[in-house]
Specification:
The protein is an alpha/beta fold. It contains 9 helices and 12 strands. Bound molecules: adenosine-5'-diphosphate and magnesium ion. Belongs to the ABC transporter superfamily.
Length: 253
């Protein structure tokens, strides 16, 4: 079966600095892969490449069979324009560290915005679906609240519902709980755990080792622009082989 994400030797530089230095990574349909690693190791940049927010400089990166940034026709690759990129991006759900809801829209309006704009659903249908999603993240009673009226944990749960509204094949999470007050982390992780158990394909950058241990099929350690170790969470956490992994696991325990 074809992986949902397939990265081979992915490279990315900003000016003279090579941030991704040959990343090999795969996620199969229905799998949860967690990425851990020190700050500055390229985790966010890698997610941004998967989500068509950055172009790669080398290697190969495919999402759901398509080369990121390109369309394949008669065996040749053609660069996608901004409009085509935006439409590919819309097929991937992304939740960032900082709450990135539209501040002038209510929770419900945030959720229906993309599916209506991209004509995935009619407005009444999008509203019906959004209410179901709000119910799933436990926030039906906050449908008319603006982001500023919600806690950080509630905002992240709306952000997750908003990403799900586009019925994405793949969900990307970039440290979704690291900007939250400690008492709000659990409610977001429990929504993510449920998504994992429902069989969603997820790539999660996180320092929440307990979460990774419970839900990840694969855990990888990124360091200095490369994946230096990968395995089951149990192997990686209890018996790390690479010195970088040993040091990192010690630091977050
Ligand atoms: P992580 O998410 O693992 O903390 P990042 O992917 O955010 O790491 O960053 C990796 C490196 O790339 C850092 O040194 C960062 O400063 C650099 N970087 C990230 N984005 C840019 C950019 N747009 N321009 C220049 N440098 C960048
Ligand atoms: Mg980051």
């Amino acid at each position: 079966m074809q992986p949902i994400v397939q990265a081979e030797g992915v490279r990315k530089s900003f000016r003279h600095v090579e941030v991704l230095r040959g990343v090999d990574f795969e996620v199969q349909n229905g799998e949860v892969s967690c990425i851990i690693g020190p700050s500055g190791s390229g985790k966010s940049t890698f997610l941004r490449c998967i989500n068509h927010l950055e172009r790669i400089d080398g290697g190969r990166l495919r999402v759901d069979g398509d080369y990121v940034g390109y369309q394949e026709r008669d065996g040749k690759l053609y660069e996608l324009n901004e409009k085509a990129l935006a439409s590919r991006r819309a097929a991937i759900g992304m939740v960032f560290q900082r709450f990135n809801l539209f501040p002038h829209l209510t929770a419900l309006q945030n959720i229906i915005e993309a599916p209506v704009l991209r004509k995935l659903r009619t407005k009444p249908d999008a509203i019906k679906h959004a209410l179901e999603l709000l119910d799933q993240v436990g926030l039906l009673n906050k449908k008319d609240a603006y982001p500023a009226q919600l806690s950080g944990g509630q905002q992240q749960r709306v952000a997750i519902a908003r990403a799900l509204a586009m019925e994405p094949k793949l969900m990307l999470f970039d440290e979704p709980t690291s900007a939250l007050d400690p008492e709000l982390v659990g409610e977001v992780l429990s929504v993510m755990k449920r998504l994992a158990k429902e069989g969603r394909t997820m790539v999660v950058v996180t320092h929440e080792i307990g979460f990774a241990q419970e839900v990840a099929d694969t855990l990888v350690l990124m360091d200095q622009g490369r994946i230096v170790e990968k395995g089951s969470p149990r192997e990686l956490i209890n018996n790390p082989q690479h010195p970088r992994t040993q040091a990192f696991v010690r630091s977050v325990r």
